[in-house]
Amino acid sequence: MKSSVFRVERMDVPGGSEDIVRGGRDLFGLLPAALHGVERIGVLGWGPQGRAQALNLRDSLAGTGITVAVGLRPGSRSVEDARTQGFTEENGTLGDWLEVAAASDLVILLIADAALAAQHEEIFAVLKPGATIGLSHGFLLGHLTSIGSAFPEGHPVIAVCPKGMGDSVRRLYQQGATVNGAGINASIAVHADPDGHAWDRALAWSIGLGSPYTFATTLRSEYLSDIAGERAILLGAVHGLVEALYRYFRIEGADPVTAYVRSTEAITGPIARTISTDGLAAVRAASGDEELFDRAYSAAYGPARDLVAEVYDEVADGTELRSVILAERRLATRPMTEIGGSPMWSHSAEVHARRGTAPARIDPLTAGLFVATMMAQVDEFAARGHAWSEIVNESVIEAVDSLLPYMHARDVAYMVDNCSRTARLGTRRWGPRFQAAYEQIALPHLDRPADPALIKGFLDNPAHDALAAAAELRPSVDISV
C-alpha cells in the first residue's frame, strides 16, 4: 500500500507487520486531493451497499465540488427511495445506470453479482477513457477469469470492501458524527494502476465511507475470503449451528424459549459481545464450564474445518460463483423462498421481550461449538496464505461487530432472508451442511474427552495477537440497531 496523501502505518501482526491506514473525519478535507481529478462519482446500484456508500460518500464530500450520482437500471424499484434521500434527476444525481457510468470519473459497481457478471460488458463499453472502475467485491474478477476475459485496458481498477453489511456501513458512519473514525473496517485492493493514483483513490473512497481501519489485500484474495466466509462463520455455519442446537436442546428436554436462549440468543448476545470486547479466549473463561467448552470445541473443530476447506475449494475453482449465476437465471421466473419457517423462529419475539429480566449467560456447549467453527475458518484462511488483517476481519470482526448484532435484533433467519443474493444463496446451500455436521458428528461426540492438543492450539493461536492488534483501532462505538 502506498499513498502521497494519507499516512500509511505498519501494524505488528504475528510473523511480521502489515500496512494500514487509520480513518477519521479529520481526513475528509484530504479526499479531493487523494481522488486525483475525480469530479464525478457514479454509484451503480441501490442495494444495501449501494445505498450506504452513495450516502456516506455524498456526506463526506459535501462542499468539495465532487458530485456523487446514483445510476439505476430501467424499471428499478429503488428509484423512489433514492429520490427520498436527495438523489434526483433534477439535480443531476440520479439517472439511468449506463448514462451515469458514461459521465463518471470513478464508477462504483454495486449491482448484484450475477447481474454484474451478465452485464459488465455494457458498462465497460460506455466508460470515459481512463475512468476508474470501482468494486466492493471480487466476484466479477472470479467470473472474468472463469470465462477467459479481463477488465478493459487503460482503466484503473480498485476495490474498497467494507467488512460489514450495508446497513452497518451507514449506521456506524452516522453514529460516528460525534466519534472520529467510527465506521466499518474495509479492505482495499488495486488490480490495475495505469495512471499511478489508484492507491490514493481507493484510500479516499474507504476513508470517505468512514472506515476507521483500512488494510490492503488483492481482489482475488478478497473474493475468496469473503464468499467462503459468508458461507461459513458469518452466515451459513451460524445458521446451521443454531438450528442444530435448538433441536438438540429440545430433545434434551428444554422448553422452546430456553432452547432458543441457549442457542441463538447466546451466540448473538453474550458470546458476540465478549469476543468483540475481550477476544476469543475470553469466551472460554466466561463460559462457567471450561471442561464442557473444551469437549464441545474438540468435537466441532474437525468437521467444521473440513467444511470450511470444502467451501474454500469450491469458491477457488469457480464452482460457487457458477452456482450463483445459475441461480440468478432460475430466480428470474420464481422468487427465492424464505427459510425462517422452522419452529424455533416462532419464539423469537417472546425471547426478545424477556431481555433484561435476567443476566445474559454464555452457554458453554454453544460457546465451544461456535468458537471452534470460528477458529476453523481462521486456521483455514491462515493456511491458505491470507493476511492477518483479512483473516480476523472476515472471520471475527465482521461477525461480532456487524452481522451478529443485527441477528440479535432481528434473529438469524431474518438476516439470512435479507442479505445479499450471493450470500443468501450460499447460506441456503451450506447452512444445512454445517447443521448436519453438528448433528451427526459433533454433538454425538460430546461425551468424549477434550483433545489437549486442540485446546492448546486454540489457546496459543496467533490469531489472538492479530485480533488484539486490530482491536486497538476499533472506535469506542458499538453499533446501534
UniProtKB/TrEMBL annotation:
Superkingdom as given in the UniProt entry: Bacteria
Cofactor(s) this protein requires: Mg(2+)
Binding, Mg(2+) 2: D226
Protein name stated in the entry: Acetohydroxy-acid isomeroreductase
Any one GO molecular-function label of the UniProt entry: ketol-acid reductoisomerase activity
Binding residues annotated for Mg(2+) 1, in chain numbering: D226, E230
Keywords: Amino-acid biosynthesis, Branched-chain amino acid biosynthesis, Isomerase, Magnesium, Metal-binding, Oxidoreductase
Functional pathway: Amino-acid biosynthesis; L-valine biosynthesis; L-valine from pyruvate: step 2/4; Amino-acid biosynthesis; L-isoleucine biosynthesis; L-isoleucine from 2-oxobutanoate: step 2/4
Classification lineage: Bacteria, Bacillati, Actinomycetota, Actinomycetes, Propionibacteriales
The organism of origin for this protein: Kribbella soli
Record Pfam families: KARI_C, KARI_N
Domain called KARI N-terminal Rossmann: residue spans: 21-221
Family, per entry: Belongs to the ketol-acid reductoisomerase family.
